[in-house]
Amino acid sequence: MKSLKSVAVVVMLGAITVGLVLYWRYDERYPSTKDAYIGANIIYVAAQVTGQVADVHVVENQPIKTGDLLFSIDDTQFKASVDQAKADLDSSVQQAKSYSTQITAAEASVASAQSAYETADKSLERAKALHASGDLAQASLDQTTSAFAQASARLTTSQSSLLALQSGLAAKQDDILSSQAQLEIAKANQAWTKVFATADGWIANLSLRPGSSVSANAPQFSIVESTDWWVDANFKETSLPRIRPGQPVTVHVDMLPGVALTGKVASIGRGSGDTFSLLPSENSSGNWVKVTRRFPVRIDLDPTEATLRVGGSSKVIVDTTGSSDRK
């Protein structure tokens, strides 16, 4: 009887030993963790202008497509800004046209004064020659000299007037460019009173209501994108030597019992979760106790029809016997 008990104990111990060895071998080839959570891209929706909300066109958890209207801001003041900018631009254009017309007349005046100046100059040269030969009285020379001086003054005045008009036109052209820029800004601000979706997904964390005041670039709610789902799995550092990018992964999501998702290891974090925490541990203290660290491993999920939700708890199993990218 004692021999049978001894045999039973030996068999039991042997079975336990074999079980432990098999479990160790399995865990070595298929490292797993339950410290894993589903992730997706989240877009924080904000208006680009400040104003009062006129309409909200979505509700919490609503599926949306790229380009769908999310909410709109009262655009009364923005329309007025556009109208004012248009009026300023029209005024600048009309003033520039007026300067152009005056410049045309001034150019004609300069041409006429130039011709009169050249004629007076030739007359003065002839008068000087005749006076030197005694064929012209001093009074006639003085009269010719006076006419030349008047022609020269008229030319100088007309040229100064033309330069002033040209400077004025240049200034008005600058005003036109400035007014055009202001008009474009006003139109952009008016367009930004309507906020559209930039990706497919679902509305989340919505509390915005008509009548609310929003500030430019202040997030109002979120969009959870419906593409590029992944899992962030935190593995013990002792498991990392066997994990490589590209290895196949099986994911079991707690909220989806009986559903097994597949994916691949995308990357392994360069720092432990504790490293980037707000208050990292101080290992230099005298009461140091060694604790196995966990490092984030990003798992890219294969396309699936399963209903995934950000932050869902998961169990991740990595097949280290599968192919991997050893770059």
List the helices and strands and how they pair.
Layout: H1 2-29, E1 32-39, E2 42-46, E3 51-56, E4 63-64, E5 69-73, H2 76-133, H3 138-191, E6 194-196, E7 201-204, E8 213-214, E9 219-225, E10 230-236, E11 248-253, E12 260-268, E13 294-301, E14 313-318
Antiparallel strand pairs: 1-10, 1-14, 2-9, 3-5, 3-8, 4-7, 5-6, 7-9, 10-13, 11-12, 11-14, 12-13
Kindly describe this structure:
With 327 residues, this protein is α+β, with helices and mostly antiparallel strands. It has three helices and 14 strands. Strands 1-10-13-12-11-14 form a six-stranded antiparallel β-barrel. The longest helix has 58 residues, at 76-133.
Q: Could you list some keywords that capture this structure?
A:
327 residues; alpha+beta; six-stranded antiparallel β-barrel; four-stranded antiparallel beta sheet; 3 helices
